[in-house]
Amino acid sequence: xxxxxxxxxxxxxxxxxxxxxxxxxxxxxxxxxxxxxxxxxxxxxxxxxxxxxxxxxxxxxxxxxxxxxxxxxxxxxxxxxxxxxxxxxxxxxxxxxxxxxxxxxxxxxxxxxxxxxxxxxxxxxxxxxxxxxxxxxxxxxxxxxxxxxxxxxxxxxxxxxxxxxxxxxxxxxxxxxxxxxxxxxxxxxxxxxxxxxxxxxxxxxxxxxxxxxxxxxxxxxx
Length: 222
Hints:
The protein has 3 helices and 8 strands. It has helices at 4-29, 125-134, 217-221, and strands at 38-51, 61-73, 82-94, 102-113, 146-153, 172-181, 187-188, 201-202. It has a 4-stranded mixed β-sheet with strand order 5-2-1-8, with no helix packed on it. The mean pLDDT is 84.
């Protein structure tokens, strides 16, 4: 006869094996669900100024402030295994020292949770009550994946290690996402299409150029 410890080990081993198999099946189920995201992003206003782009900046430098409009449908990314989606918009432009490298800076981001993960949101109590009320009775709410922004001011400014960004050519805005599941691996914006997972339709703005440095009125008078 087996001792009590051996029996406990056997039960625990069987339990962990079953749990692992179930988790693997849940993670694999995401591959079956099609992903067909689409987005349209457009630049509305760009200014380049000189100053301290962040409160902790020790010196003044040039930085770009962008306003943009975004219309995105990421509803197909929401399944019963989706915990939350991290969405962000970046500005990209060619590197001046290498043709193989690209400069990229995130200018705006947001986190969209499924109703089952609303408790993870870092928002105030009033906003939390409103969020929970809007999803009452729902475990999955694909409508949250629809984003409409008009003349949205960027959360973060564009800077460069050189301290100069004025008159930079060939800049584009791009929409990215990161799907965080309850079980499985993190998945980022795909660069190739895989089965039912499609690349973002659109998601890239027209090429634009950062304007010349904006001169303050005091400097003009001088």
